[in-house]
Design goal:
heterodimer; A: 5-stranded mixed β-sheet; 5 strands; 13% helix; B: 5-stranded parallel β-sheet; disordered N terminus; binds flavin-adenine dinucleotide; binds FE2/S2 (inorganic) cluster
Chain lengths: 107, 464
C-alpha cells in the first residue's frame, strides 16, 4: 500500500498507508486527519479538499484536468502552483512516499 | 397525489406562503438570543447530546460540537445500518459503477473513535418526550438526553400502488436495489424531472437503457432551476436519446403478477399513454422528517422551524428552545436569500446540511460561539459530461445574461432581480461558480453588462 505523508496545519506529520485506487482525500477522511473537509465527497464540486503538494513531488502526479484547475481558482486558502484537489488524485504505487500539506482553511 | 404536491426536487426552495410567521423575524430572533430565548435551561445530567439522523447534518453537528469545545457524551443515532455516507454519488458515479461503497464515507471510523462519538446504527427513533428528555427506539429502549439535535433529513415521496421494480432513490439501500435491477433492465421510466430523476436518467441512459422521463409540469426542474437552465438541460437529455414527456397527469403503473410492466400517464391534451417499462424510478421530491419534532412540541411548518442559530422553536410560545437544535433537509430557517421572504426557507442540499450544522454544533457547545446562519446557498448536479453548479436562489429573475457560449456547453447564466445579482447557474464553468459564490457573499454590485462581457474581469469587483 502506498504511504502518503500528510502534514497537518500544526506541522504534525502523519505517514498513512492509503489503499491503491482510493484518493488522497479518502486517505485523510478515513484517518480523521483534520484539514480536509471534502464536502462533496469527491464529486469535484466543492474545492474543500485542497492540499499543497510538496514541490519536489509535483512531477510524480498526473496534471490537473481543466475542471479541477478551474475549481482551484475558488479555494479558500492561498492558491499556489502546488495546489491540488486531493479528491482528484488517485493513489497508485507511483505516489508512494509523497508529501501533501493541509492549507490553513477550506472554507 | 394532487399535481401541486408532486413537486420538483432538491433545492426545494419553497417560496410560497408569503405570510411572515411570527417569531422568525430577524429582530425577534436576535432579541431572543440576548434574553436567553425564553426557555429555561435544565441542568445537565451527564447524558449529553443525542443526534438523531446519521447523514451530513448528523455527522457535522457532532463534529462541530466537538470543535466548539463540547465535552459531554455524544451519541449519533441512525435508522440506517451505515455510518454517514455521501448521497450525491448514488444517482451519479455509484449508479454508473464508477464509485463503490468504500469511497462514500463522510467521516472515517477514526473520527467516531477519536472524537468519542458513539454510533447507534439501525436504530430508528419512534418516540420523543421533551419534559422527560427521552427518546424511544423502535426496539422499545429509552434513551435519555440533555441536549438533542434533530438531523432527520427527508424521505422520498412515493406514488400509490407501486409494484415491484418501481423504486425511489434516497439511500444506499435504494441505490443498491436500483443498481441490481438496472443490470437487467432495458426500458426505464423516470417519474419526475427534478435533479435526482434527471441524474438517474442520465446515468441509466449512459448504461445503455432506453429512458423516458415523465414530468408533471411543462418543463424540467420547475422548482429548482430557472427556465433558461431547465431548457438547456432538456435539450441535453434529448440530444442523448432520452425522451421527455411534459404535463403528465394520472400517473399509474401496469403490472404483471405484481411486477412492473408499464407506466401509464396522460399528456397535457388528456391523451393516455402507456410506456412499456421493466424499471421505474420515482423522483417526485421529498417530505421532511418532522414527526419527532412534532412529538416534542416544536414548531413544524413543512420542515422543523429553527432560528438563525439552528435552535428549534417552541410550538406554543414561539420562543427558541435552547436545548434542541435541528439542521439539514428537515429544517425551515429564516433566510435573506429567500426570494419571497415568506415563511422561511427549506433547502435540500449538502451545502445547507453542512453549513447549518456547523452553527447547530456551535450552539450545542454554547450559543455564544454560534454565528447566525447566513451562508450563500449552492448546489451541483452532474449529468453526462455536464457539470451544473448553481449558487444563490434565483427564483424568477427579471434579467438573465449569458457569459460564455451555450453551444460549447461551457457558460454561466447570471440572474438579476431589480438590478441585483441573485443567482448564477454554471455549466462546465467551475471557475465562474466559485467566483459567483464570492460575488454573492460579498454583495458587491455587478451589472448585467459586466456579467455578459466575457472580457470584463468580474474578480475586479471584489473587495481586495
Ligand atoms: C440520489 C441523491 C443525489 C443527491 N445529489 C445532490 C447533489 O448533487 N448536490 C447536493 O447538494 N445535494 C444532493 N442531494 C441532497 C443531499 O444528499 C441532501 O440534501 C442531504 O443528504 C441532506 O442531509 P441531512 O443530513 O439533512 O439528511 P439526510 O441525508 O436525509 O439524512 C437523514 C438521516 O436521518 C435518518 N433518520 C431519519 N429519521 C430518523 C429517526 N426517526 N430515527 C433515526 N434515524 C432517522 C435517516 O435514516 C438518514 O440516515 C442528493 C440526494 C440524493 C438522495
Ligand atoms: S471533495 Fe469536493 S472537490 Fe474534492
Amino acid at each position: 500500500m502506498p504511504t502518503i505523508n500528510y502534514v497537518l496545519k500544526d506541522g504534525t506529520r502523519r505517514a498513512i498507508d492509503v489503499p491503491n485506487g482510493t484518493s488522497i482525500m479518502l486517505g485523510a477522511i478515513n484517518n480523521n486527519l483534520r484539514g480536509i473537509d471534502a464536502e462533496c465527497g469527491g464529486c469535484c464540486s466543492c474545492a474543500t479538499c485542497h492540499v499543497y503538494i510538496e514541490e519536489s513531488d509535483m512531477a510524480r502526479l498526473k496534471p490537473a484536468d481543466s475542471v479541477e484547475k478551474e475549481l482551484l481558482e475558488g479555494v479558500a486558502a492561498e492558491r499556489r502552483p502546488t495546489s491540488r484537489l486531493s479528491c482528484q488524485i488517485d493513489v497508485t504505487a507511483a505516489l508512494d512516499g509523497i508529501t501533501v500539506h493541509m492549507p490553513d482553511r477550506q472554507s | 397525489m394532487p399535481i401541486d404536491e408532486i413537486i420538483g426536487e432538491i433545492v426545494g426552495a419553497v417560496v410560497e406562503g408569503a405570510v411572515e410567521v411570527v417569531g422568525t423575524g430577524v429582530s425577534e430572533v436576535v432579541a431572543a438570543v440576548f434574553d436567553g430565548g425564553g426557555g429555561e435551561k435544565k441542568p445537565d445530567t451527564g447524558e449529553g447530546l443525542i443526534v438523531v439522523g446519521g447523514s451530513y447534518a448528523g455527522a457535522q453537528i457532532a463534529a462541530s460540537a466537538r470543535e466548539a469545545g463540547y465535552t459531554g457524551r455524544i451519541r449519533l443515532v441512525s435508522a440506517e445500518a451505515h455510518t454517514p455516507y455521501h448521497r450525491p454519488p448514488l444517482s451519479k458515479a455509484y449508479l454508473l459503477g464508477k464509485a463503490e461503497r468504500e469511497s462514500l464515507p463522510i467521516r472515517g471510523a477514526a473520527f467516531y473513535d477519536e472524537e468519542k462519538v458513539e454510533l447507534l446504527l439501525s436504530t430508528p427513533i419512534v418516540g420523543a418526550d421533551r419534559a422527560n428528555r427521552t427518546l424511544t427506539t423502535a426496539g422499545g429502549d429509552t434513551l435519555k438526553w440533555d441536549r438533542l439535535a434533530l438531523a432527520t433529513g427527508a424521505r422520498a415521496r412515493t406514488l400509490a400502488d407501486m409494484p415491484d421494480k418501481v423504486l425511489v432513490l434516497r439511500d444506499l439501500a435504494d441505490a443498491d436495489r436500483l443498481r441490481a435491477l438496472a443490470a437487467d433492465a432495458r426500458r426505464v421510466v423516470v417519474i419526475g424531472g427534478g435533479y435526482i430523476g434527471l441524474e438517474a436518467a442520465a446515468s441509466l441512459s449512459q448504461l445503455g437503457k432506453r429512458v423516458t422521463v415523465i414530468e408533471m409540469q411543462d418543463r424540467l426542474l420547475a422548482r429548482a432551476a430557472t427556465p433558461a437552465l431547465a431548457n438547456f438541460v432538456a435539450d441535453a437529455h434529448r440530444a442523448r436519446g432520452v425522451e421527455l414527456l411534459f404535463g403528465a397527469r394520472d400517473v399509474g403503473f401496469e403490472h404483471y403478477h405484481g411486477v412492473l410492466s408499464g407506466v401509464r400517464a396522460s399528456d397535457s391534451t388528456g391523451r393516455a399513454h402507456t410506456l412499456p417499462a421493466d424499471l421505474a424510478v420515482v423522483g417526485i421530491g421529498v417530505h421532511p422528517n418532522t414527526e419527532l419534532a412534532a412529538m416534542l412540541g416544536l414548531a413544524v411548518d413543512d420542515g422543523i422551524r429553527v432560528d438563525e442559530f439552528a435552535r428549534c422553536i417552541d410550538a406554543a410560545s414561539g420562543a427558541p428552545v435552547p436545548e434542541i437544535v435541528a439542521a439539514g433537509d428537515c429544517t425551515r430557517h429564516p433566510s435573506r436569500w429567500n426570494p419571497a421572504q415568506g415563511r422561511g426557507l427549506r433547502l435540500e442540499s449538502v451545502q445547507n446540511a453542512t453549513d447549518q450544522s456547523k452553527i447547530a454544533g456551535a450552539t450545542v457547545a454554547g450559543a455564544a460561539a454560534a454565528k447566525p446562519y447566513d451562508a450563500v446557498p449552492w448546489f451541483w448536479s452532474d449529468q453526462y459530461d455536464l457539470k451544473l453548479q448553481m449558487v444563490g436562489l434565483s427564483g424568477v429573475p427579471d434579467t438573465t445574461v449569458t457569459r460564455g457560449n451555450m453551444a460549447s456547453n461551457r457558460f454561466s447564466l447570471f440572474h438579476f432581480r431589480a438590478g441585483v445579482l441573485v443567482g448564477v447557474d454554471s455549466v462546465n464553468k467551475p471557475a465562474d461558480h466559485m467566483l459567483a459564490r464570492r460575488l454573492l457573499a460579498s454583495r458587491v454590485p455587478v451589472t448585467p453588462e459586466q456579467a455578459a462581457d466575457a472580457n470584463f474581469d468580474l474578480r475586479s469587483t471584489l473587495p481586495s
